[in-house]
Amino acid sequence: EKIEQLVWTGDKDNAGEFDGLLTILNGEESVIKANGTGAYAGIKAAYSAIPVAVLPKATIFVGADTFRAFMLDMVEKNYYHYAANGADVQEFILPGTNTKVVAVNGLNGTNKVVAADANNLFYGCDMMDDAESIDFFYSKDNRSYRLVLDFNAGSQVAYPNEVVVGTIA
Q: CA 50: distance to chain centroid?
């Protein structure tokens, strides 16, 4: 959970963190901005701002909290374009498009929408040299098993001018 949060919202100015995708994108002038009031309007605004060349491969990422609000907006507007089978749905095709809206816990609480080709967003870690360590042990003090991982990690965006970052008011 912590790694997913760092991938999206990490800030290297905080000890032990690396710059997440939002931090990187906020520092880029070429990022496309799109804002909306309410989850449905914010997601629609982000979709409308996606460059045509990126659109066939685009995915819209939102926090699980925004995704839940989006689904409730769909019901409120009487847009019943989904299977109401009670399944734990974490992705949904935006009605009238071929673009997926995907809930990611790393964006929870940010009120941000990120629309991009997922192949343009990167997370990497080392785990191949002496800079990392993995230790799995039984702690008699706590009477539990413990796992300790030390490794280097980071996020990056290849083409920020092909990414839409929206804010939901």
A: 16
- Checking if the pLDDT of 73 tops 90, the result is no
Given a contact cutoff of 8 angstroms between Cβ atoms, the answer to whether 99 and 164 are in contact is: no
Mean pLDDT of the chain: 87
- Bridge-based pairing of strands 121-125 and 153-157 is antiparallel
- Other beta carbons within 10 Å of 50: 24
Please report how the helices 39-49 and 64-76 are oriented relative to each other, as an axis angle in degrees rounded to 10.
Answer: 100
Residue 135 in contact with residue 145, Cβ under 8 Å?
no
- Report yes or no on whether pTM surpasses 0.90: no
Structure tokens at 92: 């949904």
Beta-bridge partner residues of 38: none
> In a 3-state reduction of DSSP, which class is residue 40?
helix
Is the model more confident about 124 or about 34? 34
The structure tokens listed for 74 are: 């769909």
CA 122/CA 141 separation, integer angstroms: 39
Q: Is the CA virtual torsion 67, 70, 75, 80 positive or negative?
A: negative
List the Cα angle 88/90/91 in 5-degree steps: 130
